[in-house]
Structure formats: C-alpha cells, structure tokens
Amino acid sequence: MTFLGLSAEILARIQFAFTISFHFIFPAFSIGTAAFLAFLNFLYLWKKDAAYLRLFEYWKTIFAVTFGMGVVSGIVISYQFGTNWAVFSDRAGAVIGPLMGYEVLTAFFLEAGFLGIMLFGRKRVGENLHFVATLMVAIGTLISATWIISANSWMQTPAGYAIAENGQFVPANWWEIIFNPSFPYRLIHTVLAAFLTTAFSVGAVGAWHLLKDKTNRQARIMFSMAMWMAALVTPLQIAAGDAHGINTLEHQPAKIAAMEGHFETQKGAPLILFGIPNDTTETTDYAIEIPKLGSLILTHSLDGEIKGLKEWAKTDRPPALIPFITFRVMVGIGFLMLGLGLWSLWTRWRGKLYDNTWLHRAALVMGPSGFVAVLAGWHTTEVGRQPYTVYGLMRTSESLSNVDAPAVGASLIAFIVVYFVVFGAGIFYMLRLMLRTPGGDDGELEKGPVKAAGIHPGPAQGTPMGGDDGL
After folding, report:
1. 3-state secondary structure string, 114-158?
2. Which of 212, 297, 363, 419 has the most Cβ atoms closer than 10 angstroms to its Cβ?
C-alpha cells in the first residue's frame, strides 16, 4: 500500500527528516547562544560595563524562545521511535535508550534547574550566583549535545556491543559505546558549527543595527564579537571537518564515495567540484574536476586510493545525489564564512570595522548561513549512512514499524501544517525581537545594580584596531 506513490518506509524517513531538521536548528542556535550569554555575563562582572548587561538582557529572551521550541520539537522525535521505528527501538533500545536517558539525567536537569535563575533571578540571587546559573545552562547545553552525538555516532560507527540470540544489540563495553570511533570528530564538528551558527546570527543582528546607526555601542560589541568568532573559529572548523572526513573514509568509505561523486575506484582521484551523480548510469555527469586533489585531501597523498561506489552492491550503497550536493553546500558556506572572517580582520586592522557598509551588508546576508550549513551537514551524514540505521548491521527497511503508508502520510501532512504554524510563529517572534534596537531603553538597568554601583553607560568608542573596549 502506498500514499501518493510513496511507500511507508519512504514516508517515515521523510517525516523523521522533516521533524529533526526543524528540531536541529534550535539546539544548534541555543548551544552557541547559551555560551554567548555566559561570556556577556562574565564581561559585565569583569568590566562593570552596562553595555554587556544590556546585551545579556537583549539576547536572553531570544535564547528562552529558542530553548522552548527546541524542547517541544525534540519531544516529537522521541515519539517517532515508538510509532514509526518500533523495530529499531526494540533491537537497539538497550544501547540508545540509556544514552538518551543520561542526557535527561545530566544535561536536561542541569538546564531546567538553572534556567529560571538565569532568566529571572539576577536581582533575587545576586550577580555572582546568577553568573553561575548562566554558566550551568551553557554547560548543560554542551552535555546534552555530547549524549545526543554519542548516540548518533554509535549508529554510524557501532562499537562495544554484542548481539543477543533474539537479534537485539546489548551493551558489552559502555566506554566503547560512548566513545565510539566517530564520536570525538562529530562532537567537535557539531559544537563548532553551533558556535558559528550563533556567531553569524549575532553578527547579522549587529550589522543590521549598524546599518541604521553606526554609533550604537551594543551593535558594535555584537558585531565585533561575532567577527572575532568568524575569523578564529572558522579555520578550526575547516580543520575539524578535514579530520572528520578522514575518519569517515576509514569507517564509512561508501559514504565518502557518495559525497565525492566517485563510482570508480581510483588512485589519484580528482576532486569533483560540480556535477550530477547518476545512480542509474553509475556516472557523475557534467563533472568539473581538479586532478588528484580528491586523493590529496582525503589520504594526504597525490596517489592515494579512493574507493568508488561500484565496490558495493547497489542495495548496499547510499544514494549519491543528496550527499554530493549537501556536502558541497556545507563546504561552500564554510569557505564563505572564512572569507567574511578574513575580511573583518582586514577592516578591523584598518580601523573601519564599524564603518564598512559593504561588510555589514555581507554579514547580514550571511546571517542564516550557519543554519543552512548545519542542516546540509546533517543530511550529508544521515543520507550517506543509508541503507542502514545501524551502519552495516541493521537496515532501514528492517527498522520500520508495522504501519500503513496512508497513516504515515496523513501524520506527515499534519506535522507539516502544525510545524509551519507553531514554529513559524515562534521564528517570526524571534526575528521581531532581533529587530529591536539594542540598548534602546536603559530604564530597568538604571534602577538596578548598575545604578547602585555607580556605573553609567559609556559612549560608543572604537580603538584604532576597530575594536570596542578590547573586543
């Protein structure tokens, strides 16, 4: 039985991809935003400068909305393991279940316990304890990412398991399960991606307000901090991505073949910049190549061997087109980020960081780039893992519940409608919050601890290097 010509398996995969794509953008933003808030709080306590407190108050509401939408959208993901992927849940539950449980016991309780203090408790608990609460929320988001990435990495590179007589995966060594071969690379790559996603969002907001008023001090601080992150973290992310690619070549060579668009095994394989992989003809059409560069990047040798998709039976290969395209989207955005970061260093050195209108416009355009990049990377990873849920051990077709295509199709349509209404409204509200002029109202700050400490807002100032009070 099909629905609109699609099988239950395809519809269930589309549904999971849709819901997790919506969910993923919120943790990717909240991880970086929580760290940003903790750093703003630290700078305020260190410098006793009201500008940092204003920025904290400005971004904490945006973080709260993001965090709430992330929690709500994550709940739906958990239910789908029972509704659409019950066989996978039964067979892999002894491994995946505890990892998800550890996230709740550590990260979620930590976040939930300190979130209220962070959002509402500054005047009630004092500034130092409030900073501790903000720091705990930031640490909690990182711990949450750690457990989720560990669970996903185990599905990509399973280790530390045994298979019982009934076919279930059972833990044999928890250290090997948690710290499976791809886990460190995925964790570093994902966390850096979250920091860059937040940096470019903050930079776009700062650029927007600088385009309206180049003297706005809070906008200057936002933009300066974001451009420092772009310049310093993007090269680290490119290096982390390279290491992750080499690890993937070792443990998931079929995924690399799909990402690179290689059907034939080659020594001295070219880097295919653009093309259209065709699984039917087993060729990459209209390919634009750089000779030997593919082998150099992946094996660090001009004559290194790269396996092609023909090394595997067609039923054991991932589809090539999607990971080929999404991988190039992710890498392309990464180099655009690097370019913007280097451009900002140049203008900072010339003392023009806050005056270069074209730089501000470019930063505004690049605002959503982090979200596009993390989604492209996620789809590269997940589609490249096919046809398996547990790589090499359990196929996606074997993981599906006994569900009918019309039922899955109807729920998919319902998800699409509800998600676009509910989360569309939430995202619209977040954008409205970002359009507020930062530091526009000092009333609350003047009544609070800033006034009591005798600290007053300073004028917008820039150093010869284009920084703002050291940033």
Report:
1. HHHHHHHCHHHHCHHHHHHHHHHHHHHHHHHHHHHHHHHHHHHCC
2. 363
